[in-house]
Amino acid sequence: MPIRIVEVAYDDERAQELRRQLNDDLDQRYAPLHAPAESDEVRAARAEALRTRPEEIVQTWLALDEGGAAAGHVILRRLGEEWELKRLVVTPAARRRGVGRALTAAVVDRARTDGAHRVILQTGAAQPESLALYTGAGFRPIPVYEPYAATMAGSLCFALDLD
């Protein structure tokens, strides 16, 4: 499937829809792992840790299929001094066709061009396809970093050195 990677605004409707689909998928994958008696305070703190603020966003990309439909999405954001790959999602129909690799490459290329020394990311064990993608792209495990350490200590975090 030929794909085209395009830069879009964070609030692009197609990007928003793919992030909604990602949220639904992650809710299904991770809800069973959260304690049944988890407090509203813990849930709110986790939502805050996962929030992407507009001022942090460097770029948002979509992968478009040959018909122009959105097949994937990713964000590059500045997280303090770090450069973070965030909100990577590939539609079910586009999986196993190189879309995730192409979106990851867009993030890495832009971060490198802008002077980053590494790209970091956060994921989890309930996303085996993501783990395979990231390790296949050369990312290596690192300790869980903020803002995830307090509310998602079981996260799996990775970095790719660009130097």
UniProtKB/TrEMBL annotation:
Pfam families: Acetyltransf_1 (PF00583). Its EC number is 2.3.1.189. Keywords: Acyltransferase, Transferase. It comes from the Bacteria. GO terms for molecular function: mycothiol synthase activity. InterPro entries: Acyl_CoA_acyltransferase, Bact_Acetyltransf, GNAT_dom. The keyword Acyltransferase applies. Residues 1-163 form the N-acetyltransferase domain. The keyword Cytoplasm does not apply. PANTHER family: AMINOALKYLPHOSPHONATE N-ACETYLTRANSFERASE-RELATED-RELATED. This is Mycothiol acetyltransferase.
